[in-house]
């Protein structure tokens, strides 16, 4: 097994777990947050920057890299690690969620998905076998099964079709997979508990080295997502990593950790950084606001990141208003650091055996960060 | 005197000089290249990045900062040093050249320049007194006299008008100036030797702590600029810093150092970095070129900058083609490092007493970098 999760401790008060994920590119402390490097770059940051935020495992997108520069190019340059020089671990998604997002430009059938490139309209196909081949060429430490994502508000027939198809496709992925990269299964089933249970049972039967909860963060109300979290993680094997895909806001992460999730990825810290928003210990700051024009304080007085050690809100506001690259860069660096500090705090509380109290204090503060986000990833 | 130039050595074979410019923010080794931080940021770089390229003195633009965020805002935040956290020295231009560039949006008379903001068309005025006040608010170590720039291809009457007006304005600047920032004069006179001599004589009479050659790089052919360089530096006092404004390509800098110039600024390394171009020891590389798709070599095999130590041409090409911020950032960092390495090589040759031979070898290699440049600063 190329990766395995060593569970260190369980919180007595919640379902939270503390572990170490052993990968070919180092040990990753869990619960872990993965910054998203869609096009083999965490937007605006160097890989040295990413490392100094405390990140050790990053996500890259199969769909984007398949189209540009092409998976064979990345492979010829030593895979994602050789291509980027990132010394930590990588996970690639399967492309399933990305093509799902190409509403109107894709056609799904039992074989796979035909779609048009969002760059130039050219036609392409991804099947389970093709997704695995591409992910093998990209060479991440962890790769994902190609799945059919149903979305929010679909009827029962479509929900069951997507769930069943994802199971069949997962088996095809496993059969096509030839490298020693760790292939994770993705539990679908939307917001229907029976459907989720059937999906999880089928996936667990494949005995894969890790499992994700997919099909969340697709437009559903938050309480609907939290309901899936209340039973979803427990459907997955105790000794293997549990990954909640594409989630989420800091409060979502704390809720999911408490429910027994080990791994997270989300574009929020980077996307917010390019839309003038900073995440701080007291909530969100829109740095364009005129009130920060002469504000000499850092984005977050509690933050030890380089942005906060060096720069005032006033300077960052100026950069953002002047459309300077450095504005997005300083905000992104801070936001990713904010997420990694949250994860360190979570892990420290788990190590100390005080996570239950830590989470209770987190909820008692009543700070939330969620809200509408502007630009696309 | 808040700054002074300590001359260390003169090259026996050329007019090149090696010195140390003592400033309130450290000693700057000359000849020196100043990266341009138009809006109080060297585009795409952090100030830590700027420092590690070897830069110690940077330029910021009065015109841009006057409009946004406003000089009083910068002053309230501790001047440029407090605002940016840059630990090195700053020089601000006077705004003269910038408003000169606002063709059609400005009106010049003996009092000063009325112009419309390139942001919103709002009306503003800069006079010698106002420029000095604004530069005092910005708080750079070195500030520049407000001048009237004639441009290339103007008639003799306009040339003499701009030169004479710049002299009168320089006196008004000196009289208005109340801080201990070093105020440099700017010699105008276009491409007419007698006019340059008259300007220089008048400027030297003001006994300012440093002098610039202005009104070059305004569209003239290269040989015309080189002709001014053949006599221009010698018109300036031996013991004071000589600054060639807005120049230039690496070959221009070597020519000007040989002619006795100590200080340079230019947007080229940063602007080229945002238009997919790298400056290397063998010339210019357009990283978009398909030939680099799988090129594992660094931008410049002779370069020790972080970009070249970490990343391949193939990766940088991918980033640029994918419009990723990191592409511009890695190229900019390399290009500024390239300029600073050139300056270090020049200074090392001067220290060794071998600059004449070094320059001869530079010309014998026949590498040139000059060419058309795309986007605006």
Mean pLDDT of chain A: 96
Oligomerization category of the chains in this entry: homodimer
Structural Rg of chain A: 20 Å
Structural class of chain A: alpha/beta
Basic shape of chain A: globular
Q: Could you give a short account of the major beta sheet of chain A? A: 8 strands, parallel
- Low-pLDDT stretches of chain A are none
Q: Any idea what the CATH architecture of the largest domain in chain A is?
A: Alpha-Beta Barrel
State which percent range the strand residues of chain A make up: 15-25%
Within the CATH hierarchy, at the fold level, what is the topology of the largest domain in chain A? TIM Barrel
Query: What would you give as the CATH superfamily of the largest domain in chain A?
Result: Queuine tRNA-ribosyltransferase-like
Instruction: Return the CATH class of the largest domain in chain A.
Output: Alpha Beta
Side by side, the strands of the main sheet of chain A go 4-14-13-12-11-10-6-5
The total of beta strands of chain A comes to 16
Helical fraction of chain A equals 40-55%
* Total helical elements of chain A: 15
Q: Determine the N-to-C terminus distance of chain A.
A: 33 Å
Q: What's the number of structural domains of chain A? A: 2
Most extensive chain interface and residues per partner: A-B, 38 and 38 residues
């Amino acid at each position: 097994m190329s990766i395995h999760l060593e569970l260190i401790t369980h919180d007595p008060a919640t379902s939270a777990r503390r572990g170490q994920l052993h990968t070919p590119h180092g040990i990753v402390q869990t619960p872990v947050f993965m910054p998203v490097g869609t096009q083999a770059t965490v937007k605006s940051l160097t890989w040295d920057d990413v490392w100094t935020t405390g990140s050790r495992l990053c996500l890259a997108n199969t769909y984007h890299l398949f189209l540009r520069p092409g998976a064979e190019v990345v492979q010829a340059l030593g895979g994602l690690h050789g291509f980027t020089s990132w010394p930590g671990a990588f996970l690639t998604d399967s492309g399933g969620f990305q093509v799902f997002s190409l509403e109107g430009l894709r056609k799904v059938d039992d074989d796979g998905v035909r779609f048009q490139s969002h760059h130039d309209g050219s036609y392409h196909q991804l099947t389970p076998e093709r997704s695995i081949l591409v992910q093998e060429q990209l060479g991440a430490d962890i790769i994902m099964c190609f799945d059919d994502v149903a979305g929010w508000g679909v009827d029962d027939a479509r929900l069951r079709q997507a769930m069943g198809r994802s199971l069949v496709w997962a088996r095809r992925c496993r059969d096509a997979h030839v490298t020693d990269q760790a292939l994770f299964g993705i539990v679908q089933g939307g917001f229907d508990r029976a459907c989720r249970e059937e999906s999880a049972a089928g996936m667990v039967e494949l005995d894969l080295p890790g499992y994700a909860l997919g099909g969340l963060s697709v437009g559903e109300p938050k309480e609907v997502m939290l309901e899936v979290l209340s039973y979803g993680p427990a459907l997955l094997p105790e000794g293997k990593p549990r990954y909640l895909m594409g989630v989420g806001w800091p409060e979502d992460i704390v809720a999911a950790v408490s429910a027994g999730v080990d791994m997270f990825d989300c574009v929020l810290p980077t996307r917010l950084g390019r839309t003038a928003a900073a995440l701080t210990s007291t909530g969100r700051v829109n740095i364009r606001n005129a009130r920060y024009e002469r504000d000499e304080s850092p984005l977050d007085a509690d933050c030890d990141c380089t942005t906060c050690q060096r720069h005032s809100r006033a300077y960052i506001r100026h950069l953002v208003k002047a459309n300077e690259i450095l504005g997005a860069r300083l905000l992104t660096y801070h936001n990713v650091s904010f997420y990694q500090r949250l994860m360190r705090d979570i892990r420290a509380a788990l190590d100390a055996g005080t996570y239950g109290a830590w989470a209770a204090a987190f909820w008692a503060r009543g700070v939330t960060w969620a809200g509408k986000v502007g630009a696309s990833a």
